[in-house]
Amino acid sequence: MLTVVIVAAMLIILVREKHETIGFLLIVITGVIVFIFVLDKVSQLFDVIQQIVSRFNVSLLHLDTIFKVIGIAYITEFTAQLLKDADLEAIAIKVELVGKIFILLFALPIFIAVLETLMSFIPG
């Protein structure tokens, strides 16, 4: 995978000098290829985590929420970087802000569960 990225980077540098649009398309295609490669590895990680969940009887609700938050963070970062590569910095900043808001919304049940657990330790 590293060699593909290095070759793509050199190709992008060469092409971008003459054809900026094609250079940007190569950036997007390379990003998608890397993202698909990473998704394959992430699916292996999910299998391991599922084994841990079944073995230790961990709350699936909280684990599901954590995965959603991680997914939102990665997709937001990937999208923001693509927008920055396209010189759309202002939109990239707004995408990052929306991603952070969604992370806060999805993490709210975990925050509430932590607060309830802490409150159960306080007498009276």
Short description:
91% of the residues lie in helices and 0% in strands. It is mainly α and 124 residues long. It is elongated, with a radius of gyration of 20 Å.
Structural class: mainly alpha
**Percent helix among the residues?**
over 70%
Average pLDDT taken over every residue: 85
Question: Which shape, going by the Cα principal axes?
Answer: elongated
* Helix/strand order, N-terminal first: HHHH
Structure description:
The chain is mainly alpha-helical and 124 residues long. The chain is built from four helices and no strands. Helix 2 packs antiparallel against helix 3. The N and C termini lie far apart (58 Å).
Summarize the helices and strands and which ones pair or pack:
Elements: H1 2-18, H2 20-56, H3 60-85, H4 89-121
Helix pairs in contact: 1-2, 2-3, 3-4
Features:
mainly alpha, 124 residues, elongated, 91% helix
